[in-house]
């Protein structure tokens, strides 16, 4: 038992300071690198030390950016006719302006009555019937056949820039319908396009192109050559051509057999130069004499060619030989861009495989179009385009569309 006296004796015997050494174990935990990166250095801070150069208190003023006030919207200005503006607001319909109105005031919004303006009436029996019984309130649109026809017409209506396009229609075989094809092609172009189309009968062997339309003049290519210097405008030129109901102009060939050979390369160039002044597309009904000088002048101006073939064996072979002749004489580009019109109204068509003839030409030219039999064409007289069978007109339009697609849209010379 320790008494108070013993406690006092123990306190007196202990030294005033006591140092005890304790060996601690090795570090058992390393600080991860991510903690080291954000750790604060262990620097002792003396609370009694104050650096006079460093302010003891730092004040930070936060400035909140103020959004710039939006500009006040300008008051709307009412433009009236009296102010020479383009609005009639706050004016009564039909009210007369106190000052003269500019032409710009005659806008469609002002003049057109919405109650009287409706969609274009549809074409086709059923759409027209529905349109009529609904008092023009229900418009189903055009029928499928009409839409297809308008699509082809849109292709025909392709716009050109920079000069006239020349398209010869030729073959080495006579009697295959070359003049008929020229007539159909010209009518399909003229009935759809807004520009001028002319077909020239350059057959030195007395062509019959002018007999496919109602004659309005006795003038021929010879008259054009002799009067070339006096032709100053389109009105003068129209007195020398016959115009069809489709607006196709026809320039006849010489009718005198004694003068037929006189129409040569130079004469054709005179006629071609004149027509280039007034027409966008010039079709040339060429003769069977492929080595004639007129043919050379025609091909030199050609942008594309139409080769006419019949449906018999010899007609198809001669048409193919025409392509061979063109390739051999430096007109390979024309051959590759050519369109073959396969006239199935000729004799022997029913005895041959038309699809084989088409396959042959498709391997050599750009396109092939089959022209069906039509009694109006078989008569060999005046052609009434509106009275042709629908199938014939569709073929003519397709031929025209293909020809136009092969013509350059722009030309620099």
Protein traits:
413 residues, alpha/beta, Rossmann fold, 8-stranded mixed sheet, 34% helix, extended, ATP binding, ParA/MinD_ATPase, MinD/ParA family protein, ATP hydrolysis activity, P-loop_NTPase
What does this structure look like?
This is MinD/ParA family protein. One of its GO terms (cellular component) is cytoplasmic side of plasma membrane. InterPro entries: CobQ/CobB/MinD/ParA_Nub-bd_dom, P-loop_NTPase, ParA/MinD_ATPase. The chain has helices at residues 4-13, 33-38, 108-111, 125-133, 144-156, 178-192, 221-226, 234-238, 265-278, 293-301, 313-328, 332-336, 354-362, 375-378, 390-405; strands at 165-170, 197-201, 242-243, 248-251, 281-285, 306-309, 339-343, 367-371. It has an eight-stranded mixed beta sheet with strand order 3-4-2-5-1-6-7-8, sandwiched between helices. Strand 7, helix 13 and strand 8 form a beta-alpha-beta unit. The chain starts with a helix and ends in an 8-residue tail after the last helix. It contains 15 helices and eight strands. With 413 residues, it is α/β, with parallel strands linked by helices. Among the domains are: 120-156, no CATH class; 162-405, 3-Layer(aba) Sandwich (Rossmann fold).
CATH class (first level) name of the domain at 162-405? Alpha Beta
Q: Count helical runs.
A: 15
What portion of residues is helical? 25-40%
CATH architecture of the domain at 162-405: 3-Layer(aba) Sandwich
**Rg (CA only):** 47 Å
> What gap, in angstroms, lies between the N and C termini?
136 Å
Summarize the main sheet: 8 strands, mixed
Q: Let me know the average pLDDT.
A: 80
Q: How does the overall form come out from the CA principal axes?
A: extended
CATH topology of the domain at 162-405: Rossmann fold
* Relevant CATH superfamily of the domain at 162-405: P-loop containing nucleotide triphosphate hydrolases
Query: What's the number of extended β-strand segments?
Result: 8
């Amino acid at each position: 038992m320790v008494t108070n006296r013993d406690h006092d004796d123990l306190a007196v015997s202990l030294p005033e300071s006591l140092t005890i050494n304790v060996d601690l174990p090795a570090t058992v935990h390393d600080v991860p690198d991510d903690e080291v990166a954000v750790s604060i250095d262990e620097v002792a801070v003396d609370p009694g030390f104050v650096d006079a150069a460093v302010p003891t208190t730092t004040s930070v003023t936060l400035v909140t950016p103020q959004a710039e006030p939006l500009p006040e919207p300008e008051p709307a200005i009412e433009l009236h006719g009296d102010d020479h503006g383009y609005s009639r607001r706050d004016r009564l319909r039909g009210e007369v302006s106190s000052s003269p109105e500019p032409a710009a005031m005659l806008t469609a919004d002002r003049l057109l009555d919405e109650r009287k303006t409706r969609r274009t009436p549809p074409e086709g029996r059923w759409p027209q019937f529905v349109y009529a019984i609904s008092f023009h309130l229900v418009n189903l649109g055009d029928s499928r056949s009409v839409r297809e026809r308008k699509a082809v017409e849109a292709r025909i209506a392709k716009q050109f820039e920079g000069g006239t396009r020349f398209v010869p229609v030729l073959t080495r075989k006579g009697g295959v319908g070359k003049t008929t094809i020229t007539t159909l092609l010209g009518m399909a172009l003229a009935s759809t396009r807004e520009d001028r189309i002319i077909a020239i009968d350059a057959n030195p062997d007395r062509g019959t192109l002018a007999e496919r339309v109602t004659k309005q003049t006795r003038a021929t290519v010879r008259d054009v050559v002799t009067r070339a210097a006096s032709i100053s405008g389109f009105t003068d030129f129209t007195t020398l051509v016959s115009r069809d109901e489709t607006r196709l102009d026809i320039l006849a060939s010489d009718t005198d057999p004694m003068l037929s050979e006189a129409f040569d390369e130079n004469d054709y160039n005179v006629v071609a130069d004149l027509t280039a002044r007034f027409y966008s597309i010039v079709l040339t009904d060429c003769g069977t004499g492929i080595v004639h000088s007129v043919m050379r002048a025609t091909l030199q101006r050609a942008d594309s060619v139409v080769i006419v073939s019949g449906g018999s064996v010899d007609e198809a072979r001669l048409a193919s030989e025409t392509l061979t002749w063109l390739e051999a004489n430096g007109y390979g580009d024309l051959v590759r861009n050519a369109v073959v019109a396969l006239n199935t109204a000729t004799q022997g068509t029913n005895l041959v495989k038309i699809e084989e003839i088409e396959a042959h030409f498709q391997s050599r030219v750009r396109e092939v179009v089959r022209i069906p039999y039509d009694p109006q064409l078989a008569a060999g007289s005046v052609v009434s385009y509106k009275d042709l069978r629908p199938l014939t007109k569709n073929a003519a339009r397709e031929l025209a569309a293909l020809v136009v697609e092969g013509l350059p849209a722009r030309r620099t010379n």
